[in-house]
Amino acid sequence: MDGELWLVVGLGNPGPGYAGNRHNAGFMVLDVLAARTGGRFRSHRSRADVVEGRLAGRRVVLAKPRSYMNESGGPVAGLRDFFKVPAERIVVVHDELDIPFGAVRLKRGGGAGGHNGLRSIAKSLGTLEFLRVRFGIGRPPGRMDPAAFVLKDFSAAERKELDLQVELAADAVECLLAEGLQAAQNSYHSRSAS
Questions:
Q1: What's residue 194's pLDDT?
Q2: Residue 97: which residues within 8 A CB-CB, separation 6 or more?
Q3: Does residue 157 lie in a domain region?
Q4: 13 marked ligand binding residue
Q5: Is residue 194 part of a domain?
Q6: Residues forming the active site
Q7: Is 70 annotated in some ligand binding site?
Q8: Do residues 181 and 108 make contact, with C-beta atoms less than 8 angstroms apart?
């Protein structure tokens, strides 16, 4: 089992203009995971930047699609085909409006919940049965359009906690790889958002 390859995909939008956006939480977590492997992202023909290495005793490919969020499925399907990874060993790290900022939740499957990146991946993979590490960003204030909210940078107050929350989500990915979904849920769902 230890030799099986896992694909961990962080969702976001490419380019420096999006780097601090809430929608780029997945990219932020993948940057931490890449640093933990000691690897550097390099361009892959699947239209993603990848790092191959080991995390939590597992062989992993860490990937950040170079497409925009709503077209993430093509690169993810390309990576799945290239590395021959089944859906049950694909982990997608993404921002989640329905979870308060500072909380991390894990699950397998479920709907896209209005998340265009997840919708694109489900369509391209032909299944929703991949694993998800959901990084809570909370709901927009007042009547702000959620589509506008996710493309804004984290607030000053959130930025004080952001590095810690990104590290926590990276820890959750490692726990998922090492111990499985149930154990990771038990560890991370009991932690309340600060």
A1: 46
A2: 113, 114, 137, 138, 139, 140, 146, 149, 150
A3: yes
A4: no
A5: no
A6: 23
A7: yes
A8: yes
Contacts for 169 with CB less than 8 Å, ≥ 6 apart:
25, 29, 93, 104, 133, 135
Domain count, the chain: 1
Q: Which residues pair with 50 in a beta bridge?
A: 42, 63
CB of 138 within 8 A of CB of 97? yes
**What is the reported pTM?**
0.95
For residue 174, tell me if it sits in a domain: yes
Whole-number mean pLDDT of the chain? 94
CATH of the domain at 45: 3.40.50.1470
Burial class (CB in 10 A: 0-12, 13-18, 19+), 43: exposed
Nearest one of 193, 7, 177 to 105, comparing CA atoms: 193
Residue range 49-73, pLDDT digits in tens: 999 999 999 999 999 999 999 999 9
Query: Is the confidence at residue 3, as pLDDT, over 90?
Result: no
Tally Cβ neighbours within 10 Å of residue 138.
Answer: 19
CB within 8 A of 103, min separation 6: which ones? Answer: 136, 191, 192, 193
In a domain, 193, yes or no: no
Whether residue 18 is annotated as binding a ligand: the answer is: yes
Contact 160, 172 (CB under 8 A): no
Which residues constitute the domain of residue 177? 5-188
How far apart are alpha carbons 13 and 18 in whole angstroms?
6
Encoding tokens for residue 86?
A: 């089944």
CA-derived radius of gyration, the chain: 15
